[in-house]
Every structure is written in C-alpha cells, then in structure tokens.
Amino acid sequence: MVPVIIEKKKEILRSCSLESMFLQYFCKHQIDMFERINFSGNNLVAYNGYSGNKESIEIIQAVLRRPSVKGIDYSNNIYCFLGIHLASPILQLEEIDKKFSSFSLKNKYAVSLVFQNYRVKLESSIAMYPEDTYSYFLNLLFNANTITKEDEDKIFETLINNENADAIDIILYEQLLQKFTAFKYKGLSSVELIKGIFENFQDSIKHITKHRRKNHDLFEINDEYDVQDLSYMMLRGVFPDLQFENPHFKSGGTNSIVDLMIEQEGIDIELKMIKEKDKDEKEFIRQLKVDFNDYATWAELKDLVVFIYDPYNKTTNKNNFYSLAGLKTIGNVTFNVHVIVSN
C-alpha cells in the first residue's frame, strides 16, 4: 500500500497550481510544465517568480502596497507570497520580515525553505508555539539525534497518513525521512539496504530464471530493460516512493532519464547489463564516466548506486568498476558513488 502522503505528492505535482510550482521549485525540478496562460493577477507574478523570471520593481511595489480586502492580501496564500518575492528584482527584506512575524509556524518554515537566511529566525520561533504540531516536528528536525516509537507514530498519524497533506507537509516529511533514514531498517541506511538487495540479485532471480514451476516459462534477462524491471520490483516494496525513469536532469539541452531514483533521499540508481555480445567492460566504464557528469546536474544528489549485471562473466577485472566508487565532486555537487557487480 502506497502511503497517503506519497499519493498526495503525486496529486499536487500533477496539478496546475502555485502549490505545485512551490514543490517543484524546492525539489529543483525543471518548471516547464506550467503554462503562463493559466495564471493571472498576483498569481501570474508568483508564476514568474517560480519560473526564475523577475518582474519590474514597480509591479512588485504595486502588489505589496495594494490594500487588503476584508483582511485578505497577497500574503494569505503562502505559495503566492513566496512566488511574488522570488519575482522581485530586489529582496524585500522589510516586507518579508513584517509578514514573517505574523505567520504561523508552518508558514515560517515554508519561508525558510525558499529564503534560507530565515532558518535562524525560524529556529528561534519554535519555542513560541509549544502547542503547535509543527513545533514538535521542527524540534525533531533541528534538535533530535534519535527518533522514538512515539515520534514515528506521530509522524505517521499527522503526516504520512494525512489525506489533507499539502506541499509544506510533504517537504517536512521528506526532510524528517532523510534525517532519520538509518532508523528505518534495523540500523541500515537506505543506501546500505539497496546495496544489500543488489548484492543478492543473482540468488534472488534464480527461482524465476532457472527453477520455475512446471508449465511456466523461465524468465529471460536479455537486456538492461529486464534488469530495470526486476530491480524496480525488488525495491518498490521497500521504498514505496521509488520512481521509475525520472527525467530529472538535463544534458545537452535535453532531459536525461534516471533508471530509478528515491528523490527525497537524494538517491539515484544506474543499471547496466553486460550482454553476451559485449567483449568486456571497457565501453561500460566509459559510459559511466559520462553518466556521472549528467547525474551531477541534480543539485540534491547525495548517493549514486551503480549496479552492473554481468551474467556472462565478460568483466576482465571487477576493480575497473570498483575504482569508480567513492566520494566525487563535479561542479558544485558532491555525492557518493556505490558500485555493485553481480555475475
């Protein structure tokens, strides 16, 4: 069963809304699925902000100075508020400070996600909201080193199983998940668990490739697509938010496809299969070195897991693959490469 909050995220990302733009902006997605024609007034200004376009200072000032109507102004919608300030050619600190002081703790958190210099102000505000649920979760996020069963139950009840979860709730959940991921699998981190699954790949597939029941065809693994399908099946039950072929970065002006990814944990998974017709591993080494540069265009990347399936033992020296592992910095992105070779 897919957690409610994962379905909510998909629903929001599919919508044509400022909330969706906020979520995609924070996740550093390419914001090119939204059409300008669907937005007007203040929302159009916010649309431009999330799209990376600046408005004139005159337009921004007109929005900020517009009188409220029955107590409602541009800041009542936090996604509109943030988009408008992203569109400003000059950061309106005085205006943001004024609104920040009157915002709920949840909206303060949202401001800190877009304007990171407000993180300190957010942290100093937490104690002022002792009864606020967000105070509880933000204390976990910023101050806790471990997570208890009570904490897990509260996260499940308030965030994971919340049918009314919004984009801010989703980001909070993902940040908590990322921080405490090592506690999910008896002390194993997500990356360690993924590596363990791939290290047992050959044993796991024997039943369907060699020992199926009578009158059932054996499953043939002929190419990388077969490896990808099997890997997705193995991992999806453990990681319900695993994504299949996500085009999350651009290379040479076009979207490149990631085989598998767990976005909120900063994990990409690259799959290779060395086929019978291949001579050795040299071409695959070359491909991976190129792939690393493509993956590094995703600023949130933390771990790249590379799985090479070599059923015909074409690899002359596995160390040629293992030498690719380790901490890498390409451009402004630093990430760990983990390599598993299976025969």
Summarize the structure in words:
With 343 residues, this protein is α/β, with parallel strands linked by helices. It has helices spanning 4-14, 18-26, 41-50, 57-65, 78-87, 93-102, 105-114, 119-125, 133-143, 149-160, 167-179, 190-199, 201-209, 224-236, 282-295, 319-322; strands at 243-251, 254-262, 267-273, 303-309, 326-330, 333-342. The protein folds into 2 domains: 4-179; 190-342, Restriction Endonuclease (3-Layer(aba) Sandwich). Helices cover 47% and strands 14% of the residues. The longest helix is centred in the C-terminal third of the chain and has 14 residues, at 282-295. The two termini are 33 Å apart. Residues 250-254 have low confidence and may be disordered.
Distinctive features:
six-stranded mixed β-sheet; 2 domains; single chain; elongated; 343 residues; alpha/beta; 6 strands; Restriction Endonuclease; 14% strand; 47% helix
Order of strands across the widest beta sheet? 1-2-3-4-6-5
Main sheet summary: 6 strands, mixed
Give the tally of β-strands: 6
Secondary-structure-derived class: alpha/beta
User: Which residues form runs of ≥5 with pLDDT under 50?
Assistant: 250-254
Number of helices, where a helix is a run of at least 4 consecutive DSSP H or I residues: 16
The helicity comes to 40-55%
User: Radius of gyration in whole Å, from Cα?
Assistant: 23 Å
Mean pLDDT: 88
Indicate the proportion of strand residues: 5-15%
Oligomer: single chain
Query: How many structural domains does the protein architecture include?
Result: 2
Q: Helix and strand string, N-terminal first?
A: HHHHHHHHHHHHHHEEEHEHEE
The best one-word shape is elongated
Terminal residue distance: 33 Å
